[in-house]
Amino acid sequence: MHAPEVEREDVGLLTELEPVVARALDTHFETADDWYPHQFVPWAMGRNYEGFLEGEPWAPEQGAMESAVRDALLHNLLSEDNLPSYHRVIAELFGRDGAWGTWVNRWTVEEDRHGTAIRDYLVVTRAADPVAMEDARRLHLQTGYDSDYRGDVLAGLVYVTLQELATRISYRNIKRISGEPVCAALLQRIAQDENRHMLFYRRILEAAMELRPERTVRALATVAATFRSPAHGAPDFPRLSMSMARSGVYSPVTHHTEVLAPVMRHLGVFDRTGLGAEGEEARDRLAVLMRASEAQARRFAGHVNSAL
């Protein structure tokens, strides 16, 4: 079952890709390493809060976490919080039947534990204000999320591939600066999930590149030009994203050198032969976008270095 806004051609493409999805699912289930959020939360550090249990209210000095780590975790937690909307978006795009439907549900199962684990860790360690976190969660979910590429299967597939890679890298970099072994262990487990999700989507994108090379290159150019965090509508997003850039968790340098450029190399976009006129035009646009992304990364790196 596919949403009516998906074009007929894309419904056909989803059908052609289904055997690849089934094989990728088999690989995913063979390599999946389930884990339990409660095992990565230092519950012994916890104590009651104010309110019904008449405990101690939260205060900023209670948490020992560096502000850069806290900001990055709050951004990623807000990203994870919107899972109900993400599930709806990919179910509408990829469908709820067959291998695609199995993947949509399995992905949701695995993503659901990330927000649970991060929130429990922050609440138990008193590293962040639980009232502010809940207020932000409520506002963000009430706003919801919709894809910038609604109805475009290939652009959606490109986006989720890039986004899963970006998320994996951000968790790896938060782990690097966290300085706390339990937090680092939790982030390692989440990053492993995100990496497997990226590998799944990238495998499907590789197949799409063979089946529809010109349309896939166009989709790559479209998403490269418009990519943004799924948490872009979250409360305090501009400040949190700037903090992540300054701390090196996720900056223009990260986006270009560790997300865009590696995916383009892996797909062999600029080495492919046999593209028609539309494909060549899209590749030219993509080349311009990649040069602009590289220039932005250089400017950001130069600004950071001059500020040190």
UniProtKB/TrEMBL annotation:
Its cofactor is Fe(2+). It comes from the Bacteria. It holds the Pfam family FA_desaturase_2. Keywords: Fatty acid biosynthesis, Fatty acid metabolism, Iron, Lipid biosynthesis, Lipid metabolism, Metal-binding, Oxidoreductase. Homodimer. Belongs to the fatty acid desaturase type 2 family. PANTHER family: ACYL- ACYL-CARRIER-PROTEIN DESATURASE-RELATED, STEAROYL-[ACYL-CARRIER-PROTEIN] 9-DESATURASE 7, CHLOROPLASTIC. This is Acyl-ACP desaturase. It comes from Streptomyces olivaceus. The lineage of its organism: Bacteria, Bacillati, Actinomycetota, Actinomycetes, Kitasatosporales.
